[in-house]
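Input chain follows. Return structure tokens only.
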Amino acid sequence: MKVVMGQLNTFVGDIKGNTAKVLQAARDADTDDRVTLLVCPELTLTGYPPEDLLMRDSLQSQIEDALGVLARDLPPHLYVVVGYPRRRDGKLLNAAGVLHGGQVIAEYAKQCLPNYQVFDEKRYFSEGTEPCVVDMA
């Protein structure tokens, strides 16, 4: 298996632009037929740190739209991990989704949230509780 680490220069709040950067990174990775997995940065879609952007009511619909674009336009054989905020059961989570074959096939919620110096994640996010294992065979 060959893994590509997508070092993307995202911009906070530019969900459409950040989504386009994921698609370009996937197209670049797809030029090598040995690549199985593209891993993108934490909170790829919103940029990091999103801070008070997370409080906007429209954010989750924008994230869903971006995930729909990625599911539709990513190379179907490539596994792509992308980060985004996810509201679930009344909690906001720092999530990483695994996209493959036109859908989100798995989702992980960050469990260890930093809360020191410039990091203030516990102000915004709840901790995840479950591991995430994906079979890419």
